[in-house]
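Record type: ASSEMBLY
Status: queued
Input:
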Amino acid sequence: MNAMFYLLAAITLAGGLATVLLKHLVHSALAVTVAFAGLALMFLQLDAQFAGFAQILVYIGAVAILIVFAILLTRGADLPKHGVFSRTWPLGLVIAAGVFAVLGWAVISSAGAIPQQNASPSVTVHDIGIALVGRYVLPLEILALLLTAATIGAVIVAMHEKERPGS
Amino acid sequence: MIATSAAANPFFMNLDQIFVLLRNWLVGFLPVALRPAAGVVLAVIAIVCVFPGLFALTTVFERKGLGRIQNRLGPNRVGPFGFFQPIADGIKSLTKEDIVPFSANAVVHFLAPLVLVVTVFMGFAVLPMGRNMVLVDMDSGLLFFFAMGAATELSVFMAGWSSRNKYSVLGAMRAVAQMISYEVVLLLSSVAVVMITGSLSLPRIVEAQNQYSGIFPHWYIFTPWGLAAFLMYAIAATAETNRSPFDLPEGESELVAGYHTEYSGFKFALFFLGEYLAMFSISGLGATLFLGGWSAPFSFLQFVPSWIWFFGKVMLSIFVFIWMRGTLPRLRQDQLMNFAWKFVLPFTLLNLLVTALWRFMGEGWQRWVVCTIILAAAYIVMGRLGMSGRHIGRRSYRYAE
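Status: finished
Output:
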């Protein structure tokens, strides 16, 4: 825990807060990108190069772009007149607090399950690759199947509907 | 090796390492504690100076070359043969009024060109520009390069959306859709190289190609899978940098200037700079992955400094970019997307399988024959299928005959 960590944590938190507090949807999308970038830098700071770059590639390069595309292609980026905040926000707060509590409990209780390591492990891309096609090959294949199904689903959704003879 | 005597000559060895030696000499004046940081700062300064300088040169060469192709003179008023034109352009863009549209989103409008230039410059950090000349030798350098490339898309969207102009938004949507489609191809064609080298580190990839059989180098472009991957990479790189024939996002006849319509003065110059820097970095990566990076094309030319080969290869690719711009007409949006998803992507995926086959067939002539036949057959079949049902007759001229 050094100054760098607190700086990155501040950036990430500011990005996250801006995401939920800003009124404009596109601004929120750009703010969530800042939060993603902060997380990526956090991974890099922990010497997890692969995770950090994958975070940038996937979250900033794909997820953020997907979000802005969805905003622009659906209801437009203009502000609605009656305000953007839902009236049931206290309920949302309770749910968020509950999720955070479960996550925090899981992280804290897992600290005892993992043996203490003094030296930081050096994980290279090579190691990750070997692990992915070795020990974790089944989850990888299941993910690949899921993504293929999602792709086919997207194509079917986007396909032109054929004229039915009756209608 | 034939050229060992020439390459081992101390003069040529020093010339090869001249920038490294220069940096070490300069850093030597500082206390030891500051030396590593100062070395990095010097290298960054060098990158930040050299590539915009190349950009200035390239604008003149491009305008001269296009003029030559179009049978006119090109810039010829400022300085000898118009070579001081970029200086005049630079002064003009610095002194021009910076106009921000009234309804524009000022903060995002201001940030967009900065995000573009910064992320593009970051890509240069992992490119090996000569022997021992790489700013950061990362274990996953290729991934870093693509991560930075992905971040530029967001700046294009920011520019288009914040301008509050329909041409800007349309241009940005086109640009982002195009960049996403071709980025997949760009990544997958590079994966072939990673599969053979077994490393994501760019210096390692260059070293793997810096070997010679007789006088010929082991560049990946001289293998069937490498040639196929290089062609797909070149197509994707052209689309990724929005260059002709894939310059729809800036199609002047339809969109004024695309996502940077509402930019003027120095911010426009930054976009211009960012696009050319992206061309340099993507050509540099292409040279590193397929053309042996800084290694010499023949073993007897190894005495020539490595950085000359790297920059020579980059400038050669820039020349090809300019040549294509002067030669090919612009595609239509549907042609662009069909080409990406129905031809380039399947072919690249097939090439990955062929690369794996190449890797596991072992040494020998069989793998050359098998891989070439598979790729050529796939190319012909997919080309025929793509063109079936389309009747293309003789081109008819209305006025030019």
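Annotation: The longest strand of chain B covers residues 212-213.
Annotation: The radius of gyration of chain B is 23 Å.
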